[in-house]
Amino acid sequence: MTDTPQAPDQSDENALAPYDAVLLLGFGGPEAPDEVMPFLRRVTAGRGIPDERLAAVGEHYHHFGGRSPINDQNRALIAALRGELDSRGIDTPIVWGNRNSAPFIDDAFREIHADGHRRVVVLTTSAYSCYSSCRQYRENLADAAATVAEEGIELTIDKVAQYAPRPGFAAANLDELVRSLRTLDGAPDGEIALLFVTHSIPDAMDDTSGPGDGEGNLYRRQHLALASRLAEEAGRLLGRDLTGELVFCSRSGPPSHPWLEPDVNDRLRELAAEGVRTAVVAPIGFVSDHMEVVYDLDTEAQETADELGLRLVRVPTVGTSPTFVGDLVDALLERAAEARGEGVPQFEGRRPSVCEPGCCPNLRHARPALCGSD
What we know:
Number of helices: 12
Oligomer: single chain
Largest sheet: 4 strands, parallel
Order of helices and strands: EHHHEHEHEHEHHEHEHHEH
Number of strands: 8
CATH class of the largest domain: Alpha Beta
Radius of gyration: 21 Å
CATH architecture of the largest domain: 3-Layer(aba) Sandwich
Shape: globular
Structural class: alpha/beta
């Protein structure tokens, strides 16, 4: 039996070596009304979705003045990461890039190269494992790397593993859940429903999420594992009988294509008919208050709850929680330790930093992807 490797030194100014830059890679979002349609066209490129359908989705953004909250949240996360790195004596720069809006990934690579950096570690704002939340990011990294290579810019690029199973991610979500549940002191357990919410994806994408070993459904399994852990721990801390269940939001695509269910609004209607009076909604599938949270939950689900006479308690996302931010920095340091050939701490569900062959495949057509073994 071997000893579990120790965490890398947390206060060494060279702790991120061999990396000399960090790229925070986000999804992106519009920041003004005239950016909404171009943004949505980029997101759906190649899928043949008509502008009429995109315009309907665009109304979600126009409800908030045509500005997505996601970019400001990434700015805040970068500032929090900067503060955490500085507190550990690590001055490695953090550069920001997005898949679907400025600053784009290729521009981030140009900035990194112009500043004299050559080896980059990428941290995405997507925590879970499936095509949309992992491999598609890796495909976009490959596209951007190929674009700048035509200009003579060469970088070595690695990526932090999907971090949904990390203990710090669970701890940060637990802190927020417990704080929200404490507001319900006196409410009978039988009248409270605990709903863990994430972004729905096509059944086929979930079926093929994870390595190409035939097991699949890693996206849903990661969520169920976290939801079960949070319900158990919160119930223990509060002396409540909590079970919780996983529900979904933000479904898109034609009705003929099955997506993960139940939808949060449908489940709220069922729960109200069963006599539930309070629904606690914990958006564990999101690291900050994305449009899917502020519109799909705070707007649509709240309207559904109001119609049903349900009290809806929305648990905050982890955002810039010190626990979450500290764990992300730990993940960066562990990735650097791996790059140096050192061992790192193990925990249940830990994902490899280099994706396995066939992991979370592109079901439309094969495309090059960085940071994987295929």
